[in-house]
Specification:
By secondary structure, the chain is an alpha/beta fold. Helices cover 36% and strands 28% of the residues. It has a single domain, classed as P-loop containing nucleotide triphosphate hydrolases (Rossmann fold, 3-Layer(aba) Sandwich). The relative contact order is 0.18.
């Protein structure tokens, strides 16, 4: 089942007398349970694409369909509701509220949406077990390691059972070993929860956990590399590095 579909997305910015094309007629379809990586050099349009897909910005042209609604044509209020209920975000910076415990940070999206947290206790238990935070729920962010804070951020993104999870450099502030653990967690979320994920990353090792990787340059999709489910990580990594080398020529 298609969770998200973007058709001919373009985004332009006016800088003085110059028009900058951040995205140029990009089309992308994401299926339920699919993990899609997005790579490309700085300024290629990766973060712009992610922000458009999540409804954080509006395209200059093109359409985005999410949860059977054309998000790009909704009012700000309608788009906010769709984003709140159907999209989970994970960023490089964890964006946790420092005065709240891990559990309170995880449950915060439910409170913002006016939901009763007691109705989500079973959901909370499953997610906390999945991300391995069972004994850290009452700790504040400054009492958690970087990896634990990112686990809290992922649990917070999953608590509303979103249609799609959007991740922007989720391992950017983590050491390699912790980053691999976070990527395994995201890969498991896609498999166990049938969770659709789109992740922007500059790290080929992180991208190797995806089902397919889309490569952007100058606001356009230049290449897509897909992997068989049983493809070994070294083989995935080799194909990604080779594609990046082609992109830089």
């Amino acid at each position: 089942m298609t969770i998200l579909q973007a058709e001919n997305l373009s985004k332009q910015y006016v800088l003085g007398q110059h028009v900058v094309k951040a995205l140029d007629q990009v089309s992308l379809k994401v299926e339920q349970g699919e993990f899609v990586g997005v790579m490309g050099p700085s300024g290629s349009g990766k973060s712009t694409l992610l922000h458009l897909l999540g409804g954080l910005d509006q395209p200059s042209a093109g359409t985005i369909s999410l949860a059977d609604r054309i998000v790009s044509s909704l009012s700000d209020r309608q788009a906010t509701l769709v984003r709140r209920r159907h999209v989970g975000f994970v960023f490089q910076f964890f964006n946790l509220l420092p005065t709240l415990s891990a559990e309170e940070n995880i449950l915060l999206p439910l409170l913002i949406d006016g939901k009763k947290t007691k109705d989500y206790r079973e959901q909370l238990g499953r997610i906390v077990s999945q991300v391995g935070l069972g004994d850290r729920l009452q700790h504040r962010p400054d009492q958690l390691s970087g990896g634990e804070q990112q686990r809290v951020a992922i649990a917070r993104a999953l608590i509303t059972r979103p249609s799609i999870l959007l991740a922007d450099e989720p391992t950017g502030n983590l050491d390699k070993q912790t980053g691999n653990t976070i990527m395994q967690l995201l890969r498991e979320s896609a498999r166990v929860l049938n969770q659709a994920i789109v992740m922007v990353t500059h790290d080929p090792g992180a991208a190797a956990y995806a089902d397919r990787v889309v490569f952007l340059r100058d606001g356009k999709i230049m290449e897509t590399v897909s992997f068989a489910a049983d493809a070994a990580q070294p083989d995935r990594l080799h194909r990604i590095v080779t594609a990046l080398e082609r992109l830089e020529r």
